[in-house]
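Input chain follows. Return structure tokens only.
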Amino acid sequence: MASCSPSPAALPVLMLLWSFSAIAGAQTPVVVATPKVAPAVEQLTLSGSFVPRRQAALSPQVAGLVASAEFEPGDRVASGTVLVRLDARVAELELAQAEAEVARAEAALREAERLVEEAEALRADRLFPETELRARESGAEIAAAALAVTRAARDTSVRQRELHNVTAPFDGVIARRLVDAGEWVNQGTAVARLVAPDDLWLEIQAPQSLWPQLSRLESAVVTVDALSDRRLAATLEAAVPQSDPGARTFLVRLRLTEAIADLTPGMSATADLTLASSEETLLIPRDALIRYPDGTTTVFVVDGGTTPTARQMSVDVDRVYGETAVIADGLDSLLPVVTRGNEALTDGQAVRVIDGVGD
């Protein structure tokens, strides 16, 4: 069988092809991304608990003996519902006395007005002294004033009787029952705790460094632990401008943008706060960073050309949020950075871009 040796003229072409094949085989495959110059955002994750916006420790405005406590923990009550009744028999007797005083004052006023009318009729015939008429008119005015006084006393007695009832100031659910029938309670003694479970906000103790940055709050996403890590949009409801000197924190309240029926007071949650910035910064994927034990951080950039080459550069990282790193110094170009395959690279190594910019 005849041999198939290449002709002398074909040898240079074959050698060139073998050279290209060897170079391609030595190139390390990498994935790259192009740095971006854009306003940076910062993400901060904080923990807190849901608390009712409206909650109250209910107490009577007068002292007395509890006649009845018509509620149980967990009961949903409407605004104005009577929850606790104090023994009001003395107040009712005082009200009855005040009503009688009003009736007597009304009768006295009617009599005084009758005497005035009688005197005016006689005076028309010049049969009644002017002085006596003026005296009767004064007596009617005094009777009217006395009636006003007794009516005010009657209204006071009505209010005093009403104070023996403790009512719900808003729609809510009884969280705790603190008294029972037969107990003596003083003015201001808590008899029940009422909460509004349908109106909650998330309370967070935020670091004091966040206070001057709240104006840059772009969005807030709340993750509720008890609801299968459900993520919910929220807005800033309030920030209390008083820092806790011991913990160096201040209170932030977030309100969910939609009502969630499964939420209850006391549930824990985390809030991811996104702070926007108007300053232009250099942004690269976090995966491009290579950190060393001595604190040095580097990235690999890819120089273009016939044979792309990886070049290692030391960078200063301002901060990292999510999957993005903000570069403060060290990366002064927009050359593609290696995000995959950079772990085994060395400075000056030939690479082959398989994804990303330069694909």
